[in-house]
Design a protein that fits this description.
The protein has about 150 residues and is mostly helical. Helices cover about 75% and strands about 0% of the residues.
Length: about 150
C-alpha cells in the first residue's frame, strides 16, 4: 500500500488492526492454555471493534485533514505489512501475548505522535491527536481487561 496522505494512514491502520484481529482469532484454538484462549478471543474481538471505530473516523473526519500529505515519513520508514502476524500467538503465555500486543499498539501510537509533530495543518494535527488518544485509550482498556483475566 502506498501511503501518502492521512487517509492512507487511517486505512493502513484499519488494515493493521484487522490483520491483528484475524491473527489473534486464528490462534485461539491452537493455544493449549484456556486462559490464553480466552485472552486471544478477547483481544481479537477488541481489535475488530477498533477496526469499526477507525472506519467511522474515516467517514466523519474533515476532508482537509484526510488529504494532509505525510509521505515523507513513509519514504524513510517503509510499512511492513502483516508484521504483527509473525508472532506465534498459539505458542505464547498470556503475559507474552499481552506484551506483544502492547508493543504492536505502541508502534501505532508512536507513528501518530510523530506524524502529529510534523503535520503542518491544524486539522491534520487534530485528527492525529484524536487517533493517538483513541489508540492510547484502547490500549489501556485492553491491558486492564487482560490483567483482570490474569487475576482470575
Amino acid at each position: 500500500m502506498q501511503i501518502e496522505t492521512l487517509r492512507d494512514v487511517l486505512r493502513w491502520t484499519r488494515e493493521y488492526h484487522q490483520c491483528l484481529a484475524d491473527c489473534l482469532q486464528d490462534s485461539v484454538d491452537q493455544n493449549e492454555s484456556e486462559r490464553a484462549k480466552m485472552l486471544l478471543k478477547y483481544l481479537g474481538e477488541h481489535e475488530q471493534k477498533l477496526v469499526t471505530v477507525l472506519e467511522e473516523f474515516e467517514k466523519t473526519a474533515e476532508e482537509s485533514a484526510l488529504n494532509t500529505w505525510c509521505y515523507e515519513y513513509f519514504d524513510k520508514h517503509p510499512v511492513i505489512r502483516h508484521q504483527q502476524c509473525e508472532c506465534p500467538y498459539s505458542e505464547l503465555s498470556t503475559t507474552e501475548i499481552i506484551t506483544e500486543i502492547t508493543t504492536l499498539n505502541q508502534q501505532v501510537i508512536e507513528l501518530y505522535r510523530y506524524l502529529q509533530s510534523r503535520a503542518e495543518s491544524e486539522s491534520g494535527r487534530e485528527l492525529l491527536s484524536q487517533l493517538s488518544e483513541l489508540e492510547k485509550h484502547e490500549a489501556m482498556r485492553m491491558v486492564t481487561s487482560a490483567n483482570r483475566l490474569e487475576d482470575l
